[in-house]
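Today's session is about reading a structure prediction critically. Students often jump straight to the picture, but the first step is always the sequence itself: look for stretches that repeat, for charged clusters, for runs of hydrophobic residues. Only then move on to the predicted structure, which in these notes is written as discrete structure tokens rather than atom positions. Here is the chain we will use throughout the hour.
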Amino acid sequence: MFNTTVSKIRIRSEHAIGLLKGRFQSLKALPVRIKDAKSHKLATLWGVACIVVHNYALEHEAKEKRTVETDMFLETMMREGMEDRADGERDAHAHGGRGMRRSALLSSARERRKQLQRDLQIAWEERQR
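Below is the predicted structure for this chain, in token form.
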């Protein structure tokens, strides 16, 4: 059981190091020869710097992805809202009173959707903080 646990940890560590070496080529052939405490500290700081930059990049890549997904969502919602408005206006002219009632229902639904969009935007901004 002990060997299994240690083996799993070792494998995860090797995968993490391999990922960092893949992203930062300077780690593949670290140009520091460890011969004393000073060179050991330099090599350690070099690795830590790569980890910090990696985490920074991951965080900002995730934010960018969320921003792109949110922009696409909002763009789709706006496009659908514009299409609904055009349909409602055509229906109002084509069907007389019945179209006017439908137009009022669509208007009410649009207002509800706008409120939901505002709520979603507020929740999204709070989540980003």
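Discussion point for the tutorial: Residues 85-89 have pLDDT under 50 and may be disordered.
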